[in-house]
Design brief:
Elements lengths: L1 E7 L4 E10 L1 H13 L6 E11 L3 H13 L9 E4 L6 H10 L5 E4 L2 H17 L1
Parallel strand pairs: 2-3, 3-4, 4-5
Antiparallel strand pairs: 1-2
Helix pairs in contact: 1-2, 2-3
């Protein structure tokens, strides 16, 4: 499994591309990396069209609890998943579990995900 990151501090945007199977440990390590690099409030795209989030419901619940336990000084930035519809279950479940904590949505196209994140940024700037 490989996780590729592209961070734009100017745009406050993180692009994550997962190739292969990402485990709960991989996702936990990614969350640590976001926190340590002060990227929690950034907008994020997680593209798993070339991979999968290989977690069962218990591991997903543990990841969600882990993220809630981490102290956060600022609001979490919006999160867009880009998925292959045949492998979208974990991303959809994660979005469902965390919907009240930040804007989160699942897309089948990178273009649609970017457009939605841009709209989220525009709302934050006006608000």
């Amino acid at each position: 499994m490989a996780i590729h990151l592209n961070i734009s501090r100017l745009d406050r945007l993180v692009m994550v591309v997962i190739i292969g199977d990402a485990t709960a440990d991989d996702v936990r390590a990614l969350a640590h990396q976001f926190a340590e690099a002060d990227m929690v409030p950034y907008r994020k795209i997680i593209d798993i069209t070339a991979g999968t989030l290989a977690m069962d419901d218990a591991e997903l619940a543990a990841i969600t609890a882990f993220l809630r336990e981490r102290p956060v000084a600022t609001a979490r930035g919006p999160l867009a998943f880009v998925v292959d519809p045949a492998r979208a279950r974990v991303a959809e479940k994660f979005a469902e579990l965390t919907a009240g904590e930040r804007p989160v949505k699942v897309f089948q196209s990178l273009h649609a995900a970017r457009r939605w994140l841009d709209e989220c940024a525009a709302v934050r700037l006006r608000g």
